[in-house]
Amino acid sequence: MSNNRSRRLAELLKEEISDIILREVKDPRIGFVSLTDVEVSGDLRHAKVFVSVIGSDKERQDTMAGLEQATGFIRKLVGERITVYHTPEIIFRYDDSIEHGIHITQLIEEVRAEEKKKNNPTAEGADSKNAGDQSQ
């Protein structure tokens, strides 16, 4: 039963923290942030919030510093919005899964382009030759 409760609380925290970061936190260091997951401890007192940041390493560091600075404010607002006996302590952790997925997608596209060139090396030349014949 507590596992179900921690899962429900994790989903609720994910929604609320995402909304708070989007609408309430005014720190200019916080860039484009996606909450990827929230893990709540069994006693519901600690919540690890996994975030992904799209941008350079400096933007990622600045965003994480901004989130660390705003942790108390975010926790206060979460406590006002949800009904739990103890508002969980929020710990932000960087998650590179989205960046990793983008990198994998780029690699797949490169392999597809190379395969296409290997399988049809004369297709590009034939297409341009046929295009010239049609214009005459």
Describe the structure.
The chain has 136 residues and is of the alpha+beta class. The protein has a domain at 2-96: K homology (KH) domain (GMP Synthetase, Chain A, domain 3). Helix content is 60%, strand content 16%. The protein is built from five helices and three strands, in the order H-E-E-H-H-E-H-H. A three-stranded mixed β-sheet has the order 1-2-3, with helices on both faces. A hairpin with a 5-residue loop joins strand 1 and strand 2 (46-53). The model has no long low-confidence stretch (mean pLDDT 85).
- Please identify the top-level CATH class of the domain at 2-96: Alpha Beta
Approximately how much beta-strand content do the residues carry?
A: 15-25%
CATH architecture of the domain at 2-96: 2-Layer Sandwich
Overall geometry? elongated
| Radius of gyration over all CA atoms, rounded | 24 Å
Order of helices and strands: HEEHHEHH
Largest sheet: 3 strands, mixed
Low-confidence stretches are none
Number of strands: 3
Total count of helical runs of at least 4 residues: 5
CATH superfamily of the domain at 2-96: K homology (KH) domain
Helix content: 55-70%
Major beta sheet, strand line-up? 1-2-3
CATH topology value of the domain at 2-96 = GMP Synthetase, Chain A, domain 3
Class per helix and strand makeup:
alpha+beta
Distance between the termini: 77 Å
Residue-averaged pLDDT:
85
